[in-house]
Amino acid sequence: MNDILNKFYKNQGSLYKILLCIVSTILIVYLFPKSGKFQFDFQQNKPWQYDNLYAPVDFAILKSEDQLEQERSEAENNIIPYFIYDQDIANESKAAYENQFASVFTDSIFRDRQKELKSFGSKILEDIYKYGVISDIASFEDGRKVYLRRGNEIEETSIENLNTTDEITILINRRLVNSPYVQSVNRFKELFFDVVQPNVVYDEKLTNKELNAELSKIAPTKGVVNKGSRIVAKGEIVEQNTYQILKSLQAEYESQSWTASKYNWVVFGYVLLVSVALTMLLLFIRNYREAVFENNTKVTFIFFNIILMVLLTTIIVKYDANYVYVVPLCILPLVIKAFFDARLGMFTHVISILLLGFIVPNTSEYMFLQVIAGIVTILTVSELYKRANLFISVGQITFIYILGYFAFHIIHEGTIDNLEWETFSMFIITGLATLFVQPLIYAYEKIFGLVSDLSLLELTDTNSKLLKDLANKAPGTFHHSLNVANLAEAAANEIGANSMLTRVGALYHDIGKMANPTDFTENQSTGINTHEDLSPYESASIIIDHVINGIEIARKNNLPDRVIDFIRTHHGTSTVYYFYKKAQEQDEDVNIEDFRYPGPLPFSKETAILMMADSVEAASKSLKNPTSVLIDSFVEKIVNKQMDDNQFLNANITFKEIQVIKKVLKSKLNNIYHLRIEYPE
């Protein structure tokens, strides 16, 4: 039982990653569509890349969306609208005319002809209400036939026969201008303005019922392809008709009623492919990013981001596949690069795109655009903490998307006449959404406990509480840390290491000296050396303990683990040589392990750079009359001794890079200790 528990404990990291891979595979496959995927990938106006294709079954040819839209539009244009004629309103208007006529035509000039005028007005009113009065017919074009429903009777007429309230004045003028009653025009206008009311309304419900009946008659198909008929030959250009037949075959295939057995096989196929992709990512991390692989939180973080991108894309595809480019997929390589490095960011991005290829339309086009956009993202955003860089990168990403879409459109259509400008706006939205990466990185730092260059930039502020305490309590150590930071940053830049991380590590590497600052020579401003009254063992213990103290102070102040690594490794397993030699003078049988730092050894380029820069800068204070030759030999001696002691054995740094670092350190120290001319007093 104990053996089993021991094996479980030793392999719990590996077991966790296997479980993570299984859970991620299940989640991703759950999000995928479960219908069978059509086995052919084709595009309009491009050659058919497969063997001759014959119809496997009889299937109907679906009409294209444009054809269906055209037929719907024709049905809407040909439908005859219905209007309701209200006889009661017409009768009320006629009754009001009878009642108000005498009160309007009261002048003596009309008194003798009232009967004639009233009869003439009644005829005009009858003409007005022959087809009725409507408030507005602006939405109907001239000459259109309409149905006028009077009770249970329906009459077909023209839209022009319906009078609008604005046309009544024109009708009165036309009827009276050539009549013997022309002087009564204004009185009739006044009377009709009061009594005439609209009595015809558009019957939208009945019209829509008729329209829906006509739309239901539109067939979604146009012919049938018989089983065994050749659909397309190898190398043949997929023209519009062939393309529509292929789309019909694809729809027929995907609409099949899947049995439980078929469904299970589809799921099993997805599981195999997704698990292979995620396993390749894990193997890449294990072989090339061992430090990341050993940290379960970091591996979980990478898988979480992949699942998040699959989730967002699936939601958009289910809503409307045309908006698939709205998902800001370039955030993924930016986030991974911010916390790890560009190579891992690109590899993760490619794996994600391969997975998304199962659910997006136009797979090859989508994958090409997203891979190119990811490459541009990785190449252009060198320093994410600089806001200008991010904005420039977003502009370049958007441009690449637009350029790629434009090129694909030309290839497919052979013209630029029908460019879809809505797609360009989607690319702009995607670019702007990429700017969300900065608040997302901040959230990830809090959730997963990771640290990015943005946080490292904040840690370089010498006005931060911890660095101000270091400057106040151990000013000599603070000055030493600044010098080391400058040396290490310059060296990191030369060999392509993370210069920001190296600078932060250098600034905080000696914070442990705040526990007892006067025990270190750089802080002994009074000239009193406390080690004169101590044994070499006690002195060595004090010097070595500044590493342990530094780790404790760093943890209390919530410094990231990446920064604490510099505190732990900046002396590696080297010895406190001065006190070791002093102890040998007193007793030759001295155990060197009593004077050795606990380690660990530097395990990255950045921590190795700090060890070199720290040793060289500290020892340079002992040079009394520094010259260029002396400085060069001095740097060579210190770094070579560290190499002989195997201090860089675990760091992924090459001999060539160490030579470059030596060169930078020599150049910088020569600049620091350059000779000045002696000015006259």
UniProtKB/TrEMBL annotation:
InterPro entries to which the protein is assigned, alphabetical: HD/PDEase_dom (IPR003607), HD_domain (IPR006674), HDIG_dom (IPR006675), Metal-dep_PHydrolase_7TM_extra (IPR011624), Metal-dep_PHydrolase_7TM_intra (IPR011621), PgpH_phosphodiesterase (IPR052722)
Transmembrane regions: 15-33, 265-285, 297-317, 323-339, 366-385, 390-411, 423-444
Keyword Nuclease belongs to the record: no
Entry keyword rRNA-binding: no
SUPFAM superfamilies: HD-domain/PDEase-like
Coiled coil region boundaries: none
Domain HD: from-to ranges: 477-619
Keyword terms, alphabetized: Membrane, Transmembrane, Transmembrane helix
Entry-linked PANTHER family: CYCLIC-DI-AMP PHOSPHODIESTERASE PGPH (PTHR36442:SF1)
Record protein name field: HD domain-containing protein
